[in-house]
Design brief:
The protein is mainly α. It is 73% helix and 2% strand. A two-stranded antiparallel ribbon has the order 1-4. A two-stranded antiparallel ribbon has the order 2-3. The protein starts with a helix and ends with a helix.
Length: 430
């Protein structure tokens, strides 16, 4: 039994100096007891979480399995290396935009302008790089900064002026669409030049098999190291920590997933640059949300803005910067869409782009009510959407069928979220 458990069970005197009442049973952190009981403890804790409405990513993972089984049974090319490699590339642009939306949803707000901001970002890059022959790298940076500036402007009107985010971003959706059309001029489209950075975003592959396997190895080692460091830090602080056996199991699961993915990608064209950049964005965003004071402030504001303000958090700053992040990632994602479509157009970011971006974040498990969700929701959600689209394309289904199915999946995700919240309230876990 760990020293931490012993201290809890011995009923150490509370930090406020008040001695426990005679005969009182000292409280024990349930996580400590779970880890003492081994597999049985984890199983019991899992059942307790499910009964309490804490479903986590379970519905999405089960959904992905069902999607894979159904489409593979209907078309044996669905799980082929080429098909899965294409999915890895297709998810990048929309997934990066969905990552920004996760930030906004954590505040309990919405951003309806991401599609038009993506179009403006692509238009800024195309006009500067192609039309005015500016250095391609500089043009890409300026396009991303344009998205950041637009997002900060939205945040300013929302946080400082008090205009509802729905109204601000709806106005932005219309206004930035007009700016996008104006920037593109009479031509209507600007093709991506050969050899440009934007072309390589979705067109470049690391063909050497060592690249994919190397990335899998690095990801596994970094994950294991982060778990060990976190456990050591918590142990020194006398807080519940993961035992080595659990860390080994978690690392082994990730290693299997990573190396199987690397093997599949190497059976096709190799490791796509688009997937690498998407994963990099996810890792950075996840670190910001889970490991920084700023990330904890986002959850606090999303959970209860007034309580966060009274706790000394600058709510206006958090809100403005979150919309800035969403705008920046929207513009970055727009460059991937331009890369996929062969250039910037007046209609880039229109159509079902906004629907897919918001749906990806929600389907992945981020709550529409704020204060609950994970950055990796963007990956899981866009995998669901793109898998459905890929499967239906292989079956030759019309686009309207895709829209109906995606809409049904989105509704199911929101229903699960609502039922989960109601269950947690009933169980007294919120």
């Amino acid at each position: 039994m760990s020293d931490t458990v012993n201290k809890e069970r011995e009923g150490a005197e509370p930090s406020n100096g008040t001695a426990p009442a005679p005969g009182a049973v000292p409280a024990v952190d349930p996580r400590l007891l779970v880890r003492e009981q081994g597999f049985a403890g984890y199983l019991a804790d899992f059942k307790r979480r499910i009964r309490g409405g804490e479903l986590g990513s379970l519905p999405v993972i089960l959904g992905l399995i069902v999607i894979a089984v159904i489409f593979q049974s209907l078309n044996d090319r669905f799980l082929s290396a080429g098909s899965l490699s294409d999915i890895g590339v297709y998810i990048a642009g929309t997934g990066i935009m969905a990552t920004g939306i996760v930030f906004v949803l954590l505040l309990g707000e919405i951003d309806l302008s991401v599609g038009s901001v993506a179009g403006v970002g692509a238009a800024v890059w195309a006009v500067l790089s192609v039309t005015h022959d500016l250095n391609d790298t500089v043009a890409v940076v300026l396009a991303i900064l344009a998205g950041l500036a637009i997002g900060l402007l939205h945040g300013f009107f929302f946080a400082r002026v008090g205009v509802p985010a729905f109204v601000v971003t709806l106005a932005g959706f219309l206004g930035w669409s007009g700016l996008q059309i104006w920037l593109m001029g009479k031509e209507g489209s600007i093709n991506t030049p050969n050899g440009s950075i934007v072309e390589d975003l979705t067109g470049y592959y690391f063909e050497d098999i060592a690249a994919a396997y190397g990335l899998a190895l690095v990801a596994t080692l970094v994950y294991a190291g982060s778990l060990l460091l976190d456990a050591d830090r918590r142990r020194k602080a006398n807080l519940p920590f993961r035992p080595v056996a659990e860390i080994v199991v978690r690392t082994a699961v990730l290693a299997v997933v990573a190396f199987v993915a690397a093997y599949i990608l190497n059976q096709s064209r190799g490791l796509p640059l688009a997937l690498v950049l998407f994963l990099a964005v996810l890792l950075i965003a996840d670190f910001v949300v889970r490991r920084t004071v700023y990330g904890r402030q986002i959850f606090a504001v999303g959970g209860n803005a007034e309580a966060a303000r009274r706790a000394g958090i600058n709510v206006e700053r958090v809100r403005i910067t979150v919309f800035g992040i969403a705008g920046m990632l929207a513009a970055f994602g727009g460059l991937f869409i331009a890369s996929m479509s062969g250039g910037a157009t007046k209609s880039l970011g229109a159509g079902n782009t906004l629907m897919n971006v918001i749906a990806a974040a929600v389907i992945g498990g981020t709550s529409l009510f704020g204060g609950r969700g994970k950055i990796w929701s963007a990956l899981l959600g866009i995998l669901v959407i793109q898998s459905i689209e890929q499967g239906l394309n292989l079956l030759g289904m019309a686009s309207e069928i895709q829209f109906m199915i995606t809409g049904a999946v989105l509704l199911a995700a929101v229903v699960i979220d609502s039922v989960s919240r109601r269950t947690q309230k009933t169980a007294g876990r919120t």
